[in-house]
Design brief:
six-stranded mixed beta sheet; five-stranded parallel beta sheet; 15 strands; 19% strand; disordered C terminus
Length: 189
Amino acid sequence: MSAVSRLREDISAAKLRDPAARGGMEIALLYSGLHAIWAYRLWHVLWQRRMRFLARAGSQLTRWLTGIEIHPGATIGRRFFIDHGMGVVIGETAEIGDDVMLYHGVTLGGRTRDSGKRHPTLGDGVVVGAGAKVLGPVVIGAGSAVGANAVVTRDAPEDSVLVGIPAKARARRLGEDTRALLMAPEYSI
């Protein structure tokens, strides 16, 4: 896929997920989540080529400009979208599938200082609500929704809904609309 095709795909993903999006030009110029993702891709290439210091310096510049910290060692799939973005942190060994969406204040962080896999893995189509923390080398199955301010420290199967502190997983009900879980404070604990 060409770079221009990838940019268009990112803009289309933002239009699909953000009801406030008015057009491609607005998204391309004003969406800090998209800017952070685009910068991450550049820093990730440098990271893979073992230019680690330059990659980390670039990611810190991006953090300073956007308020979003994505470690250049993280692995991120296609059509990833960060809505609003401020305060998002994505750790070095995090793995994010395709069509994933994060709201502001989300942390995909570690719980240990050990080397190796220490950050979460999010399957395809996962949505993580505002302020949620997903900590450690946990796996969140495809199609799952993590509620606002939930603290996830255990694996969850596909099509789960995770709410609470610590988060408890339950199966998504047939036809259930989980959008309210992502922002409403009454669902956060």
